[in-house]
Design brief:
Elements: H1 4-8, E1 19-22, H2 58-70, E2 75-78, E3 82-84, E4 92-98, H3 104-117, E5 121-126, H4 136-144, H5 190-206, E6 210-213, H6 221-234, E7 239-242, E8 259-262, H7 263-274, H8 294-306, H9 310-313, E9 317-319, H10 328-331, H11 336-347, E10 352-356, H12 383-398, H13 400-403, E11 408-412, E12 416-420, E13 424-429, E14 436-437, E15 446-450, E16 460-461, E17 465-470
Parallel strand pairs: 1-2, 1-10, 2-5, 5-6, 6-7, 7-8, 8-9, 9-10
Antiparallel strand pairs: 3-4, 11-12, 12-13, 13-17, 14-16, 15-17
Amino acid sequence: MGGAVAFNDPPEWVSNAVLYQIFPDRFRRSGRVVAQRSLSLKPWGNDPAEQGFQGGDLYGVIEALEELQGMGVTCLYLTPIFSSAANHRYHAYDYLTVDPLLGGDAALDALIAAVHQRGMRLVLDGVFNHCGRGFWAFHHLVENGQNSPYRDWFHVHSWPVRPYPEEGMDCGYDCWWAVPDLPKFNHADPGVRDHLLAVGRHWIERGIDGWRLDVPAEVPADFWVEFRRVVREVNPDAWIVGEIWGDARAWLQGEHFDGVMNYRLGWSTLCWVAGDHLRRDYRNPEYPLDPLSTEQLIGIWDTTAGWYRPEVTRAQMNLLDSHDVPRALHSLQGDVAALKLALVLLFLQPGAPCVYYGTEAALAGGPEPGCREGFPWNRPRCEALQSLIRDLAALRTHQSAIREGCLIWSSLGSDGLLGQTDSLQVVINRSREQHLPLSDHIRSGTIIWSSNGLNATPDALGCQSAVVVTGSESP
């Protein structure tokens, strides 16, 4: 079960996957978690900036599976679910226990069974660079100081450690981005490595289908080589995705990860479809929101694809937004037509498109934690977005050229974008004012999909719309 192909090549199923990212505390509250009935949960839909828990759980995810699968989703990616004192759960205190507020281990087992029964897959979030200050080994160190047998599990540079330091005071240990509640692991210690590798193995053995790895560039690279070996020994088809926002060539040579979170595709797509209407108050050098010309967009896409082997490009996690950046609709200043074009471009790329929960409900929260709103189950979904995602997922299924990355992109003036293969054409017009003449650019054929309801080849493409044309009827 450990041949070279199994260890070094990404799993083939990823290129056919449609992902849906869920922030569990804010997705759906089932009412089935006994512990929640006597606890002080925040009202559903409260300001996401508030501390505390709104009570979404894994049974709630199970209740939503039929709707998600009907939208074309084939794989779920859940942000952390292990026991934690933070609603985002990136502050784990026990990696071997599912948070009781989410339903505990039994809820995860039920979710795995329900997902697999539907032919879907499940990817969990692994936070192995740092833990919460409530993590059992760090708690032991706080209580026992230099006498703790776990003192070498962390990078301590002064005693006693101060997990709750006064302002301006050093906490005495290394932590992620100097945040005292996130002590960094010492991966040179054999005990740390053994524990974290055991965690990686345990949940794969339990039945999950892969790991998304948090801030992996801050962990020694050799740890991920061993992590990959351990995971793929259990499941050669497990998908391992690193949170690398930019150039990931060093991490995608077959030793570490299968793919990364392809933020470059996301921000460049939003910057092009929005044009001068892009909201620009969020500033992040790894997620730069500045308007792009068509030529600049194609240049970014070509550069990114050129960095990797085709097998790796087909194993990327492609996304427009996530729990760490403003929602796409926020960056597009509420322009649903522009969001539809962004989704079209997302689904037309090789790799697995990942839809952030609530996109189909037109959620528009700003920078985190504003982008972590409760899903509005008490109001109708945006049918235009929900049906669009369903249609795009079906289009990917029927057109292998899309999944294989065969589309060649070129410019049709300042507002037009053309993607072509021998048998398929995609034309997109981002303009809010001008129709795009098609007679000089498009081959005769049958429209198999359009974002504005067309059912015959038009003379011009409407404002903020897209068509996909093929030489024969769609299957």
